Amino acid sequence: MVTVVRLDGPGSVSLGEEPDPPLGATGVRLRTLYSGISAGTEMSQYRGTNAHLTKTWDADRRLFAPGAPDAAYPAVVGYEEVGEVVEVGPAVTSVRPGRLVWGVWGHRSGTVVEEAYAADRLLDPRADPLLGIFSHIGSVALNAVLDADIHVGETVVVFGLGVVGQLVAQLARRNGARVVGVDAVPQRLDLAARLGAEEVLDVRGGEVAERVRDLTGGRGADVALDVSGNPRALHEAVRAVARNARVVAGGFYQGEALGLLLGEEFHHNRVTLVCSQISGVAPALAHRWDRKRLADTVLDLAVAGHLRLRPLVSHVLPVADAAAAYELVDSRPDLVMQVVLAFGPDRSPPG
Protein backbone atom coordinates (compact mmCIF):
# COMPACT_ATOMS: atom_id res chain seq x y z
CA MET A 1 0.00 0.00 0.00
CA VAL A 2 1.01 3.61 -0.65
CA THR A 3 0.80 6.18 2.16
CA VAL A 4 -0.78 9.47 1.06
CA VAL A 5 -1.22 12.84 2.73
CA ARG A 6 -4.84 13.95 2.39
CA LEU A 7 -6.36 17.35 2.82
CA ASP A 8 -9.80 16.55 4.21
CA GLY A 9 -10.97 20.15 4.52
CA PRO A 10 -9.66 23.55 5.61
CA GLY A 11 -7.13 22.99 8.38
CA SER A 12 -7.62 19.22 8.34
CA VAL A 13 -4.79 16.88 7.25
CA SER A 14 -4.72 13.11 7.58
CA LEU A 15 -2.80 10.10 6.32
CA GLY A 16 -4.47 7.48 4.15
CA GLU A 17 -3.57 4.53 2.01
CA GLU A 18 -3.94 3.68 -1.67
CA PRO A 19 -3.22 0.41 -3.48
CA ASP A 20 0.20 0.14 -5.10
CA PRO A 21 -0.22 1.10 -8.76
CA PRO A 22 0.50 -1.72 -11.22
CA LEU A 23 3.81 -1.76 -13.06
CA GLY A 24 3.47 -2.07 -16.83
CA ALA A 25 6.12 -3.05 -19.33
CA THR A 26 7.40 0.53 -19.66
CA GLY A 27 6.67 1.58 -16.08
CA VAL A 28 9.09 2.81 -13.42
CA ARG A 29 8.20 2.40 -9.76
CA LEU A 30 9.40 5.21 -7.49
CA ARG A 31 9.75 5.24 -3.72
CA THR A 32 9.37 8.82 -2.54
CA LEU A 33 12.22 10.21 -0.49
CA TYR A 34 11.07 13.81 0.00
CA SER A 35 8.08 15.98 -0.79
CA GLY A 36 8.01 19.73 -0.21
CA ILE A 37 5.02 21.64 1.14
CA SER A 38 4.15 24.72 -0.90
CA ALA A 39 3.52 27.86 1.13
CA GLY A 40 1.47 29.33 -1.72
CA THR A 41 -0.98 27.07 -3.55
CA GLU A 42 -1.08 24.37 -0.88
CA MET A 43 -1.62 26.86 1.91
CA SER A 44 -4.52 28.39 -0.04
CA GLN A 45 -6.08 24.92 -0.15
CA TYR A 46 -5.31 24.32 3.52
CA ARG A 47 -6.82 27.67 4.49
CA GLY A 48 -9.83 27.26 2.20
CA THR A 49 -9.13 30.48 0.28
CA ASN A 50 -8.28 28.99 -3.13
CA ALA A 51 -10.69 30.13 -5.86
CA HIS A 52 -10.98 26.53 -7.09
CA LEU A 53 -12.78 25.70 -3.84
CA THR A 54 -15.57 28.24 -4.29
CA LYS A 55 -15.87 28.45 -8.09
CA THR A 56 -15.52 26.08 -11.03
CA TRP A 57 -12.77 26.60 -13.58
CA ASP A 58 -13.93 26.20 -17.17
CA ALA A 59 -10.75 25.05 -18.90
CA ASP A 60 -12.18 25.48 -22.40
CA ARG A 61 -13.36 29.07 -21.92
CA ARG A 62 -10.61 29.83 -19.37
CA LEU A 63 -13.08 31.45 -17.00
CA PHE A 64 -14.22 30.84 -13.47
CA ALA A 65 -17.93 30.14 -13.19
CA PRO A 66 -20.08 30.55 -10.06
CA GLY A 67 -20.52 27.46 -7.94
CA ALA A 68 -18.04 25.24 -6.14
CA PRO A 69 -16.88 21.97 -7.71
CA ASP A 70 -18.62 18.82 -6.48
CA ALA A 71 -15.62 17.29 -4.70
CA ALA A 72 -13.02 19.83 -3.61
CA TYR A 73 -12.14 17.68 -0.59
CA PRO A 74 -10.66 15.26 0.23
CA ALA A 75 -7.65 15.85 -1.98
CA VAL A 76 -4.13 14.52 -2.29
CA VAL A 77 -1.94 17.60 -2.65
CA GLY A 78 1.74 18.25 -3.25
CA TYR A 79 3.87 19.01 -6.29
CA GLU A 80 7.50 19.02 -5.13
CA GLU A 81 8.75 15.42 -5.09
CA VAL A 82 11.92 13.36 -5.47
CA GLY A 83 12.07 9.58 -5.31
CA GLU A 84 14.25 6.54 -5.88
CA VAL A 85 13.72 4.03 -8.67
CA VAL A 86 13.01 0.68 -6.99
CA GLU A 87 11.62 -1.37 -9.89
CA VAL A 88 11.32 -1.11 -13.65
CA GLY A 89 9.15 -2.87 -16.20
CA PRO A 90 10.61 -5.53 -18.51
CA ALA A 91 10.77 -3.15 -21.50
CA VAL A 92 12.59 -0.34 -19.65
CA THR A 93 16.17 0.24 -20.87
CA SER A 94 17.06 3.85 -19.99
CA VAL A 95 16.42 3.89 -16.23
CA ARG A 96 17.84 1.59 -13.59
CA PRO A 97 17.01 0.97 -9.91
CA GLY A 98 18.84 3.24 -7.51
CA ARG A 99 18.65 6.39 -9.63
CA LEU A 100 16.79 9.40 -8.26
CA VAL A 101 13.94 11.05 -10.16
CA TRP A 102 12.36 14.45 -9.55
CA GLY A 103 8.85 15.42 -10.56
CA VAL A 104 5.25 15.91 -9.50
CA TRP A 105 3.20 13.07 -8.03
CA GLY A 106 1.82 14.43 -4.76
CA HIS A 107 2.56 13.70 -1.12
CA ARG A 108 2.52 9.91 -1.48
CA SER A 109 5.11 7.32 -0.51
CA GLY A 110 5.33 5.87 -4.00
CA THR A 111 4.07 6.02 -7.55
CA VAL A 112 4.58 4.55 -11.00
CA VAL A 113 5.57 6.73 -13.95
CA GLU A 114 6.38 5.97 -17.57
CA GLU A 115 9.98 5.37 -18.59
CA ALA A 116 10.12 8.51 -20.71
CA TYR A 117 8.97 10.66 -17.77
CA ALA A 118 11.58 9.19 -15.42
CA ALA A 119 14.42 9.24 -17.94
CA ASP A 120 13.77 12.92 -18.60
CA ARG A 121 13.96 13.78 -14.88
CA LEU A 122 16.95 11.94 -13.49
CA LEU A 123 18.63 13.88 -10.70
CA ASP A 124 22.34 14.47 -11.16
CA PRO A 125 24.16 11.86 -9.02
CA ARG A 126 26.27 14.66 -7.53
CA ALA A 127 23.23 16.43 -6.11
CA ASP A 128 21.92 16.32 -2.57
CA PRO A 129 18.70 14.26 -2.99
CA LEU A 130 16.76 16.96 -1.15
CA LEU A 131 17.40 19.42 -3.98
CA GLY A 132 15.06 17.46 -6.24
CA ILE A 133 12.02 18.97 -4.52
CA PHE A 134 12.92 22.40 -5.93
CA SER A 135 12.29 21.45 -9.56
CA HIS A 136 8.78 22.91 -9.58
CA ILE A 137 9.05 25.80 -7.14
CA GLY A 138 12.37 26.75 -8.74
CA SER A 139 10.63 26.81 -12.11
CA VAL A 140 8.06 29.23 -10.71
CA ALA A 141 10.85 31.57 -9.59
CA LEU A 142 12.83 31.35 -12.82
CA ASN A 143 9.67 31.93 -14.85
CA ALA A 144 9.06 35.14 -12.90
CA VAL A 145 12.61 36.30 -13.57
CA LEU A 146 12.19 35.63 -17.30
CA ASP A 147 8.91 37.57 -17.24
CA ALA A 148 10.74 40.44 -15.54
CA ASP A 149 13.22 40.78 -18.45
CA ILE A 150 16.06 41.87 -16.16
CA HIS A 151 19.17 43.52 -17.61
CA VAL A 152 22.71 43.87 -16.30
CA GLY A 153 23.09 46.87 -14.03
CA GLU A 154 19.41 47.23 -13.17
CA THR A 155 18.02 47.57 -9.66
CA VAL A 156 15.47 44.87 -8.89
CA VAL A 157 13.25 44.86 -5.82
CA VAL A 158 11.80 41.55 -4.62
CA PHE A 159 8.74 41.79 -2.37
CA GLY A 160 8.22 38.68 -0.27
CA LEU A 161 11.25 36.64 0.79
CA GLY A 162 9.71 33.23 1.27
CA VAL A 163 11.07 30.32 -0.76
CA VAL A 164 10.07 31.76 -4.14
CA GLY A 165 11.30 35.23 -3.23
CA GLN A 166 14.68 33.92 -2.09
CA LEU A 167 15.04 32.03 -5.37
CA VAL A 168 13.97 35.07 -7.40
CA ALA A 169 16.50 37.24 -5.57
CA GLN A 170 19.34 34.82 -6.30
CA LEU A 171 18.36 34.41 -9.95
CA ALA A 172 17.97 38.16 -10.46
CA ARG A 173 21.40 38.75 -9.02
CA ARG A 174 22.85 36.12 -11.34
CA ASN A 175 21.26 38.09 -14.19
CA GLY A 176 23.47 41.02 -13.23
CA ALA A 177 20.98 42.99 -11.14
CA ARG A 178 21.44 44.84 -7.91
CA VAL A 179 18.87 43.16 -5.67
CA VAL A 180 16.83 44.76 -2.89
CA GLY A 181 14.81 42.31 -0.80
CA VAL A 182 11.67 43.38 1.08
CA ASP A 183 9.84 41.51 3.83
CA ALA A 184 8.48 41.91 7.36
CA VAL A 185 10.21 38.84 8.86
CA PRO A 186 13.73 39.58 10.16
CA GLN A 187 14.90 35.99 9.66
CA ARG A 188 13.96 36.12 5.98
CA LEU A 189 15.70 39.45 5.53
CA ASP A 190 18.84 38.05 7.16
CA LEU A 191 18.76 34.97 4.92
CA ALA A 192 18.38 37.07 1.77
CA ALA A 193 21.37 39.17 2.80
CA ARG A 194 23.45 36.06 3.46
CA LEU A 195 22.50 34.70 0.04
CA GLY A 196 23.62 37.82 -1.77
CA ALA A 197 20.97 40.55 -1.75
CA GLU A 198 22.76 43.91 -1.74
CA GLU A 199 20.07 45.61 0.35
CA VAL A 200 17.19 44.38 2.52
CA LEU A 201 14.29 46.54 3.70
CA ASP A 202 11.99 45.72 6.59
CA VAL A 203 8.46 46.82 5.67
CA ARG A 204 7.73 47.47 9.32
CA GLY A 205 9.88 50.58 8.97
CA GLY A 206 7.45 51.99 6.39
CA GLU A 207 8.21 54.11 3.32
CA VAL A 208 9.60 51.23 1.26
CA ALA A 209 9.13 53.03 -2.05
CA GLU A 210 10.75 56.15 -0.64
CA ARG A 211 13.77 54.14 0.55
CA VAL A 212 14.08 52.44 -2.83
CA ARG A 213 14.18 55.85 -4.47
CA ASP A 214 16.86 56.94 -2.02
CA LEU A 215 18.91 53.89 -3.06
CA THR A 216 18.51 54.73 -6.76
CA GLY A 217 19.23 58.44 -6.75
CA GLY A 218 15.53 59.28 -6.84
CA ARG A 219 14.79 57.29 -10.00
CA GLY A 220 13.11 54.19 -8.56
CA ALA A 221 13.72 50.53 -9.33
CA ASP A 222 13.97 49.26 -12.89
CA VAL A 223 11.93 46.18 -12.04
CA ALA A 224 9.97 45.00 -9.03
CA LEU A 225 8.64 41.49 -8.47
CA ASP A 226 5.95 40.77 -5.92
CA VAL A 227 5.88 37.12 -4.92
CA SER A 228 4.25 37.68 -1.54
CA GLY A 229 0.65 37.20 -2.67
CA ASN A 230 -0.26 40.32 -0.69
CA PRO A 231 -2.06 43.04 -2.73
CA ARG A 232 -0.65 45.74 -0.46
CA ALA A 233 2.85 44.56 -1.31
CA LEU A 234 1.93 44.65 -5.00
CA HIS A 235 0.81 48.26 -4.55
CA GLU A 236 4.11 49.14 -2.86
CA ALA A 237 5.97 47.41 -5.70
CA VAL A 238 4.15 49.71 -8.14
CA ARG A 239 5.16 52.70 -6.03
CA ALA A 240 8.81 51.57 -5.88
CA VAL A 241 9.54 51.44 -9.61
CA ALA A 242 10.59 54.20 -11.96
CA ARG A 243 8.37 55.78 -14.60
CA ASN A 244 7.65 53.35 -17.48
CA ALA A 245 9.13 50.48 -15.44
CA ARG A 246 7.87 46.91 -14.95
CA VAL A 247 6.22 45.16 -12.04
CA VAL A 248 5.83 41.39 -12.16
CA ALA A 249 2.95 39.98 -10.12
CA GLY A 250 4.04 36.46 -9.28
CA GLY A 251 2.12 35.91 -6.06
CA PHE A 252 -1.03 33.81 -5.73
CA TYR A 253 -3.45 36.52 -4.56
CA GLN A 254 -6.50 35.40 -2.61
CA GLY A 255 -9.84 37.20 -2.69
CA GLU A 256 -10.16 40.89 -3.47
CA ALA A 257 -7.05 42.99 -4.09
CA LEU A 258 -7.63 45.29 -1.14
CA GLY A 259 -4.95 47.96 -0.95
CA LEU A 260 -4.09 47.97 -4.65
CA LEU A 261 -4.79 51.55 -5.69
CA LEU A 262 -4.48 51.66 -9.47
CA GLY A 263 -5.42 55.34 -9.77
CA GLU A 264 -2.23 56.47 -8.06
CA GLU A 265 1.38 55.65 -9.08
CA PHE A 266 0.32 52.88 -11.47
CA HIS A 267 -1.65 55.37 -13.57
CA HIS A 268 0.60 58.41 -13.28
CA ASN A 269 3.90 56.58 -13.85
CA ARG A 270 2.68 54.39 -16.73
CA VAL A 271 3.80 51.25 -14.92
CA THR A 272 3.66 47.98 -16.86
CA LEU A 273 2.09 45.19 -14.78
CA VAL A 274 2.99 41.66 -15.89
CA CYS A 275 1.42 38.45 -14.60
CA SER A 276 3.77 35.51 -14.09
CA GLN A 277 2.13 32.11 -13.71
CA ILE A 278 3.72 28.72 -14.23
CA SER A 279 1.17 27.47 -16.78
CA GLY A 280 3.03 29.47 -19.44
CA VAL A 281 6.18 31.44 -20.22
CA ALA A 282 6.57 34.91 -21.69
CA PRO A 283 5.16 34.86 -25.25
CA ALA A 284 8.46 36.00 -26.75
CA LEU A 285 10.18 32.98 -25.18
CA ALA A 286 7.51 30.34 -25.71
CA HIS A 287 9.22 28.82 -28.75
CA ARG A 288 12.39 28.18 -26.70
CA TRP A 289 11.37 27.76 -23.06
CA ASP A 290 8.99 25.31 -21.39
CA ARG A 291 8.44 23.82 -17.93
CA LYS A 292 11.07 21.15 -18.46
CA ARG A 293 13.76 23.65 -19.44
CA LEU A 294 12.89 25.84 -16.45
CA ALA A 295 13.32 22.91 -14.06
CA ASP A 296 16.50 21.66 -15.71
CA THR A 297 18.03 25.12 -15.52
CA VAL A 298 17.30 25.55 -11.82
CA LEU A 299 18.70 22.14 -10.89
CA ASP A 300 21.76 22.58 -13.11
CA LEU A 301 22.50 25.93 -11.46
CA ALA A 302 22.15 24.33 -8.03
CA VAL A 303 24.46 21.42 -8.85
CA ALA A 304 27.05 23.85 -10.24
CA GLY A 305 26.88 25.90 -7.03
CA HIS A 306 25.41 28.99 -8.69
CA LEU A 307 22.07 28.71 -6.89
CA ARG A 308 21.94 27.92 -3.18
CA LEU A 309 18.89 25.81 -2.40
CA ARG A 310 19.84 23.86 0.72
CA PRO A 311 19.79 26.95 3.02
CA LEU A 312 16.13 27.41 2.08
CA VAL A 313 15.15 24.13 3.78
CA SER A 314 14.26 24.96 7.36
CA HIS A 315 12.53 21.72 8.42
CA VAL A 316 12.58 18.07 7.35
CA LEU A 317 9.79 16.24 9.18
CA PRO A 318 8.62 12.62 8.94
CA VAL A 319 5.44 12.15 6.93
CA ALA A 320 3.76 10.89 10.12
CA ASP A 321 3.93 14.52 11.30
CA ALA A 322 2.25 15.93 8.18
CA ALA A 323 -0.59 17.61 10.07
CA ALA A 324 1.89 19.37 12.35
CA ALA A 325 3.99 20.34 9.34
CA TYR A 326 1.06 22.10 7.67
CA GLU A 327 0.18 23.88 10.89
CA LEU A 328 3.80 25.02 11.19
CA VAL A 329 3.85 26.47 7.69
CA ASP A 330 0.51 28.17 8.26
CA SER A 331 1.20 29.72 11.64
CA ARG A 332 4.93 30.37 11.99
CA PRO A 333 6.37 32.33 9.03
CA ASP A 334 9.03 33.56 11.44
CA LEU A 335 10.36 30.02 11.84
CA VAL A 336 9.91 28.31 8.50
CA MET A 337 11.09 28.53 4.94
CA GLN A 338 10.79 25.29 2.97
CA VAL A 339 9.21 22.50 5.02
CA VAL A 340 9.82 19.02 3.66
CA LEU A 341 8.14 15.70 4.39
CA ALA A 342 10.53 12.73 4.57
CA PHE A 343 9.14 9.32 3.56
CA GLY A 344 11.85 7.37 5.36
CA PRO A 345 15.18 8.22 7.00
CA ASP A 346 16.53 11.66 6.05
CA ARG A 347 19.31 10.98 3.54
CA SER A 348 20.31 14.57 2.93
CA PRO A 349 23.58 16.02 4.30
CA PRO A 350 23.22 18.61 7.08
CA GLY A 351 22.13 22.02 5.81
Layout: helices, strands, pairs:
Elements: E1 2-9, E2 12-18, E3 27-37, H1 41-47, H2 51-54, E4 55-58, E5 63-66, E6 75-76, E7 81-88, E8 100-103, E9 110-114, H3 115-119, H4 134-148, E10 155-159, H5 163-174, E11 178-183, H6 186-194, E12 199-202, H7 208-215, E13 221-226, H8 231-240, E14 241-249, H9 265-268, E15 272-275, H10 291-303, E16 313-318, H11 322-331, E17 338-342
Parallel strand pairs: 10-11, 10-13, 11-12, 13-14, 14-15, 16-17
Antiparallel strand pairs: 1-2, 1-6, 3-7, 3-9, 3-17, 4-5, 7-8
Helix pairs in contact: 4-5, 4-10, 7-8
Structure description:
The protein has 351 residues and is an alpha/beta fold. It has helices spanning 41-47, 51-54, 115-119, 134-148, 163-174, 186-194, 208-215, 231-240, 265-268, 291-303, 322-331, and strands at residues 2-9, 12-18, 27-37, 55-58, 63-66, 75-76, 81-88, 100-103, 110-114, 155-159, 178-183, 199-202, 221-226, 241-249, 272-275, 313-318, 338-342. Strands 3, 7, 8, 9, 16 and 17 form a six-stranded mixed beta sheet that branches. A six-stranded parallel beta sheet has the order 12-11-10-13-14-15, sandwiched between helices.
